[in-house]
């Protein structure tokens, strides 16, 4: 009973995060190629599918979660670009003597 409650709580956290992430996916603001945006969006949808399957006890939950995690790792280009901009700003500050 406690395990089922923990699974439902974890699923609720995942679903809320997926909804927040999906609401902010804008192809016009995507720093990479449009195909990467589409594949990342598909990975997010697959993650939602995997979470729902995991709660339902479906045997496809594991592969769906694995595929979605791999897709998100491969196609998420938001964070590296932000990190690159911060690093470039640091290099410019060093060049300027700050």
How would you characterize this protein structure?
By secondary structure, this protein is mostly helical. The chain has helices at 2-23, 34-56, 61-75, 78-96. The chain is elongated, with a radius of gyration of 18 Å.
Task: Please count the helical segments.
Answer: 4
Would you identify the regions where 5 or more consecutive residues have pLDDT less than 50? none
Shape: elongated
Which secondary-structure class do the elements indicate? mainly alpha
Total beta strands: 0
The largest sheet is: none
Radius of gyration: 18 Å
**Spatial gap, N to C terminus:** 58 Å
The helix content, as a percent range, equals: over 70%
Order of helices and strands: HHHH
Whole-number tally of structural domains:
1
Mean pLDDT: 83
Strand content: under 5%
Describe the protein's topology.
Layout: H1 2-23, H2 34-56, H3 61-75, H4 78-96
Helix pairs in contact: 1-2, 2-3
Descriptive keywords:
elongated, 98 residues, 4 helices, mainly alpha, single chain
Give a nutshell description of this structure.
Helices cover 81% and strands 0% of the residues.
